[in-house]
Amino acid sequence: MRTPIRHGEVMLVPVGSAPDGTCERVTSCIVGHSESGHHHVLDSDLEFATIVSASGTLYVDLDTPSRLLHRKDHEQHRELEVPAGTWRVVRKTEYDVRSSVDPNPRRRPVVD
Question: What is the pTM of this model?
Answer without folding.
Answer: 0.76
